[in-house]
Design goal:
Elements lengths: L1 H4 L11 E2 L2 E2 L1 H13 L7 H6 L10 H17 L2 E4 L9 E6 L2 E10 L2 E4 L10 E4 L9 E7 L3
Antiparallel strand pairs: 1-2, 3-8, 4-5, 4-8, 5-6, 6-7
Length: 148
């Protein structure tokens, strides 16, 4: 779990793609790049273009774009679905938020999830136990990159 600890506490920033501040896609992108050498596109400019801004807690067009990006990137970049009993470190958890599959996290172990979620200045990335946390019911599926 030592690899995951270096990502705990990174501040939440909508559209963030670096250690200075990240959103859920930014966290997945950062971990996959640094730990596995898998490079995913940023998409923050696309989200800004449709009006998904830092000062809004929820923007439908940005959420739909993010759900579409997640779906497309899973297919394009060689990810395949993993059964719940076969989850392992670095699997990407796709979760529901606002009713759509638009939130992501990284499995640390079969029952531990690294993710960031929030809209306040105090929000940051954390590791949660999905057997005890509300996120277990929100996980739609986990996917694994072909290089794992």
């Amino acid at each position: 779990m030592s690899w995951a600890n270096q990502y705990v506490g990174i501040p939440y920033k909508r559209l963030g793609r670096s250690r200075a501040g990240i959103d859920c896609y930014g966290l997945v992108r950062l971990v996959l790049a640094e730990q596995l050498g898998i490079h995913l596109p940023s998409f923050s400019a696309d989200e800004e273009r449709v009006g998904f801004r830092d000062d809004e807690p929820f923007h439908p067009e940005g959420c739909q774009l993010r759900a579409g990006v997640i779906h497309d990137q899973i297919a394009i970049h060689g990810f395949s679905t993993v059964e719940a009993g076969e989850r392992q470190a670095f699997d990407v958890a796709v979760m529901r938020a606002h009713g759509d599959p638009m939130h992501l996290g990284i499995m640390v172990r079969p029952t531990l999830l690294l993710h960031t979620f929030g809209s306040t200045a105090s929000a940051s990335s954390a590791i949660v136990d999905i057997t005890l946390d509300e996120w277990a019911s929100k996980i739609i599926r986990c996917v694994r990159h072909k290089t794992q």
